[in-house]
Amino acid sequence: MSIRALALDLYKAKQKVDALQKEHDSAAQDEKSVLAQELKVVQKEFHMLRRMLDGEKESGNFRKRFSGFGNSKK
Question: Quick check: is 33 in a domain?
């Protein structure tokens, strides 16, 4: 998956988190437990995408820095 696609998915997930948080804050007490569970799932998705994006951005430098270790010319 490209960094651009990950960033777009991350943006959409952040929008979901924000919308659910707003809805949770203004909901009645009986609806808050259902919204809290849904918010927890969406937040996990957001954090997973964030870690994926951070890993993709860091992996390029990591590969450049250590690319010479496995290349032995005999």
Answer: yes
pLDDT along the chain (74 residues), means of 10: 88 96 93 94 93 72 57 51
Q: Is residue 73 a part of any domain in this protein?
A: no
The helix/strand count (H/E) of the chain reads as 2, 0
**What span, in angstroms and rounded, lies between the C-alpha atoms of 15 and 55?**
22
**pTM of the entire structure?**
0.69
- Print the domain residue range for 48: 3-62
Residue 21 host element (H or E)? helix 3-26
Number of domains composing the chain: 1
